[in-house]
Amino acid sequence: MKISFQTYCSKVKGCYLGKNIGGTIGAPFECFRGVFDIDYFMQDVSAPVPNDDVDLQLVWLSAVEHEGKNLDSHILAQYWENYVSSVISEYGTGKNNYAMGIAPPLCGHLRNENRESNGAWIRTEIWACLCAGNPALAANYAYYDACVDHSGEGIYAAVFTAAVQAAAFFKSDVAELVKIGLSYLPEKCAVRGAVDLVCECFRRGDDWKTARKKLLIAYPSSFGEIGGEWQGTALVSASEKCPVQQKDPDIPQAVHGYDAPASIGIVLIGWLYGGGDFGKSVCIAVNCGEDTDCTAGTLGAILGIIGGEEEIPEKWKKGCSEKIAICTLRPDLLLNVPETVTALCERVIKQFPVLSSSACTFTENGFEVSAAKSLIYDEDAFYPYQQENLKELLRESPYTARYHFPSVTVKVTYDGAFAEIEEGAEKKISVILCNKLYLPQYFTVRVLDVPAEWNVKNGSERCVGLEHWHGSKKAHTNGFDFIFTPAALTKHKYKLILELAPNGRGESYYIPLTLLNGACK
């Protein structure tokens, strides 16, 4: 399967136009609970509406432009710390943890009440467009992205959305795309449950309002509890299309920050019940309430990818400004914020050959894009450098931090106490080395800066042998457990260094191990 350069460009433009339109129409109703009947913009849209869903993708675009395809969660966390100015909710918690020396994926989990909320799946379009036709690669990058400030359902929602959007460059059937997205998820997770529930409601013939209520009963969201039942605002007054709402006693109170499953379900409600009509679909998503700019924006992006720029009706394209207004970023020349959606799309398109070189065939008119052999997740597929076994990543998260070096990937797995240490309590950190070369290697691994008072089992220096990939299914991976008992704790934070030196070569690699003494869970 291939698409032309012109088709690819149209789908990228449709993606971000749809994102902008959906985010704009949903913006006035964000954080409110209710059932509405809007069918067009309800606010003044002559000026651009700031939208963090797009803002955060500008940071990732800058990272791709400067770092290329060698992105992982650690590089993205550095860009996040440098350019995201917002300190609220999961955005701020991820930044705070990373600034403390806590590496991803743990920085997205530790002390993060909003780790299963909506901040990650709303920004997956960048990975879908840069990995068009390759859901596995898009989902891989979405994981690296999401674990900076999320874990659990917050990551699953991002993986699902990225896979669906990447596949939508080549597929258009809702059921087929949903099946592709679900193939990347664990068998038991709430995002899968929410998707299955909405699909079952649609098959049974329930209307969208019934599907919404069943969804919120089964997977309560705290987003609609932030603003409460809609009463109208200074921006948009209550009216016939968005009347004053009454509390629905059947919808239970949610766990704070547990928002991703219901929100993904609402995206699917708009998609299924909208019947392929762009305006009807995004409006149904908004009419469900909750995180309206995100649900409508993501659905608008999916529909924009499927149909391309040409299939978005003119009344919607002309209905709101194409200019980009930021609200969560600290801009500078390296970030280089684009002024318009068109400028954003042009820069995204230029980076496709960087992240997806194997899918890119250059022609006199640009390039053709080829789809992966299988869009469904394949557990046994070969995953080259920087495209890892996604379900292995999901199983390990948030306990395991992965570090990618030119010759080796290092997995550092914390025990159940994560980064926390206690006086006299044994601590275990597992270190696994995965050979990335078709050469056998020996590594000398040392743990540096261990306080003299700490009791370390079997010493702090090891030799680890690795075979090459060819002809070896397991011997290319090897490691050990670093087990120690802290003593004489006088500081709030201890920073150990893991040094890895491949024998016979000049380079050495260093990994910081930050350990916290105190109330840090």
SS element count, helices:
18
Q: Compute the gyration radius: what is it?
A: 24 Å
The termini sit apart by: 48 Å
Mean pLDDT: 95
Query: What are the segments in which pLDDT stays under 50 over at least 5 consecutive residues?
Result: none
Plain-language structure description:
39% of the residues lie in helices and 16% in strands. It is of the alpha+beta class. The strands form four sheets. The chain has a five-stranded antiparallel beta sheet, with no helix packed on it. It has a five-stranded mixed beta sheet with strand order 8-15-14-10-12, with no helix packed on it. The radius of gyration is 24 Å and the shape is globular. It starts with a strand and ends with a strand. The relative contact order is 0.16. The model has no long low-confidence stretch (mean pLDDT 95).
Summarize this structure as a short list of keywords or feature phrases.
five-stranded antiparallel beta sheet; alpha+beta; 16% strand; five-stranded mixed beta sheet; 18 helices; 521 residues; 15 strands; single chain
